[in-house]
Structures are given as structure tokens and as C-alpha cells.
Amino acid sequence: MKLTNDVTEKLGIRYPIIQAGMAGSTTPELVATVSNSGGLGTIGAGYFTTDKLDQEITHVQELTDLPFAVNLFVPSDKLYLPEKVEKMNAWLRPYRRALNLEEPTVNISEEEQFNTAIELLIEKNVPIVSFTFGIPDGAIIDKLKQNHMKLIGTATSVEEAIANEQAGMDMVIAQGSEAGGHRGSFTYVAGDQVPLVGTMSLVPQIVDAVNIPVIAAGGIMDARGLIASMVLGAKGAQLGTAFLTTEESGASTLYKNAIQESKETDTVVTKVFSGKPARGIDNDFIHNMNRYDDDIPDYPIQNQLTNAIRKASAQNGDTKWTHLWSGQSPRLARAVSASTLMQQIIRHTETLI
Ligand SMILES: Cc1cc2nc3c(=O)[nH]c(=O)nc-3n(C[C@H](O)[C@H](O)[C@H](O)COP(=O)(O)O)c2cc1C
């Protein structure tokens, strides 16, 4: 087994290890450290304003000359149903009251923000862009490709992987159900649920169905996970939770500790925080709000409705009402620097293979 392949060649990196673009938790230091260690660092730009994205890219470019990626959320069709928002506001009132918070105004226009981000990535010569929550329009894909950018899509099923290939993505991430954070899904299965297929099942089935390189994601924390993914036919791995607890990550100490104190059985997939299914550590907010599962407004509405509650709770040093995204392998998370983590994975992989 070799560590250099289509993925390392196309992305211009030494090792097929990608740090997931974790919106809200990446820092320029984390991204640049991973790239400078031979992997691919990714700016999690999903929630950024254009100004913030501009600053972060400039900062990363100051810290590394090597390739890095920016991860964006593809806007999706959503419905703003005032009666649903009103109901949710009533259910959220006790939390807001306890934390002294006002009801927020909701803004659902993601499209404009996304299009401006695309223009900025071209202007700043960002070499690689990864997407989640769907596939951008053909015109955007063409424009990025004309600017020689490499594009990485996300799939949680074979059908989504084929759609990514057909749309012209250069490679696709197979995101298994173990994965921390939001499901990248953009199709539904029976009962209006998103696909939840484990990494070990998903990767070889996607590998058999597409010709573009596949990158495994979900529960991979170390050399064992990387090698296992490659045996299944993946050409690399994307790690989120493993980088979340590193020193350079933007996650708070409260959050990092919560992951390190968790067991493999502690996470659940829930829509209650954002309106989209995401895997995180179970807590009081999830327990209480899960009963309204059928009435949760779509992303990004629910995300905005719960945002201040989550922030205030975390600022109070309290994990009970905030999101704690984590994959299913928290016992393997280490509090080390990102360069140490990269070195350990690379060294151990080389020894094992
Ligand atoms: C805190 C956190 C935030 C995440 N945010 C994003 C994101 O903004 N965009 C994205 O494509 N994936 C995001 N993900 C999912 C990762 O891309 C990846 O699928 C996942 O981390 C893999 O599973 P693991 O956490 O077990 O390594 C996030 C994951 C975590 C843990």
C-alpha cells in the first residue's frame, strides 16, 4: 500500500490526510499546521461573512505556501413557515428567559453569501474547495474549474456520490454515519430521514460505483483508521473530531474536555440545534427538544433560533444547552498539537504498512 496516489497528486499534498473544514472550530493556525505537516488543512467557512473569510484566507496564506482548502455549505431550498417559527419560539422561551436573551430576527438568504464567497475564493487563488449539504450549480462548478481549482464533494450514499461525480467533482468524501457534525446529505431515504450508513459499509460501495477518488470520513482518528479506509478502496481520509481536540483548534476547553470525557455510546444524531441532522454528544437540550422533532424549522432557521442560547450556555461554562459535535470515536481523541497528531499518524501508518 502506498501513501501517494491520485488524491495526493491532484491536491499537491504529501500524505492523504485531510483536516475537515469544521465551521466554527477551525483556526488559521490549525489549517496551516496540517498543510505544513504534509496533509490538507481546511478552513471551515460555512458560517463566515465575506470579510471574515477574506481575513482567514489571508492569514492562512501568511502561515503556509502549501495547498489548503476552504469548505462551504451549499445553500438548499427551505421553507419559512411563520407558524412553525412561532411554535419553536414558544418552546425556546424558557431557555431564553433563563439566559436573558431576546427573540432573534431570522434571515434565510444563504444564496448571496455563497455566491460572494465563490468570487472571493477565485480572487484569492484558493486552490481547493470542498462542499457539503449538496452540489453547487453547473455554472459555479465550471467557473471554479476554469480557475484551476480542485473540487471535493460530500456524499452519504452511493446515489449522492454518483451525483457528485456527474456534476464534475474531482473527488468525493464518503461520510459515514460515525461522523461528527452535520450530515452532508442532500437526499432522503424512507421516512424523510437522511442516509445513515457506517463508514465501513459506505466506502467500498461508493468506491465500486464511481471513478473519481474517494476519501473516507467518519470515526477515523489514527493510522489504523486511515489504513482500514485505504484497504476498503479509499484514497485518503478526512478527520474532524481528531483535529478538534488539538491545541490549534478553535474549540473551547469546555468543548474539548467534553469530547475527551465521552464514550463511544455518548453521541446521537439530532436536528434540534440547527434544523439539519448532525452528530453530537447527547445533552439536556437534545433530550428536551427531541420531542418536537417533527416540528423543527428547516436549516438555517432553527440554527439562528438556537444560536444565542448555545453561545450563552457555552460562555457560562455549561455544556447542557450547547451543541457538542463529535464523531463516534471520542475515546481516541488526543490533546496534542496538530503537528504531533499528523506526525503520529504518518509514522504509525508507515510502520503498519
Ligand atoms: C465540530 C465539527 C464540525 C464540522 N463541520 C463541518 C463543516 O463545516 N463542513 C463539513 O463539510 N463537514 C463538517 N464536519 C464533518 C466533517 O467533515 C467529517 O465528516 C467528520 O468530522 C468525520 O467524522 P469524525 O468527526 O469522526 O472524524 C464537522 C465535524 C465536526 C466534528
TrEMBL record:
CDD domains: NPD_like
GO MF annotation: an example: monooxygenase activity
Family classification: Belongs to the nitronate monooxygenase family. NMO class I subfamily.
PANTHER family: NITRONATE MONOOXYGENASE-RELATED
Annotated function: Nitronate monooxygenase that uses molecular oxygen to catalyze the oxidative denitrification of alkyl nitronates. Acts on propionate 3-nitronate (P3N), the presumed physiological substrate. Probably functions in the detoxification of P3N, a metabolic poison produced by plants and fungi as a defense mechanism.
Stored InterPro entries: Aldolase_TIM (IPR013785), NMO (IPR004136)
Keywords attached to this entry: Detoxification, Flavoprotein, FMN, Monooxygenase, Oxidoreductase
Cofactor(s), names only, from the UniProt record: FMN
The reaction(s) this protein catalyses: 3 propionate 3-nitronate + 3 O2 + H2O = 3 3-oxopropanoate + 2 nitrate + nitrite + H2O2 + 3 H(+)
Protein name according to UniProt: Probable nitronate monooxygenase
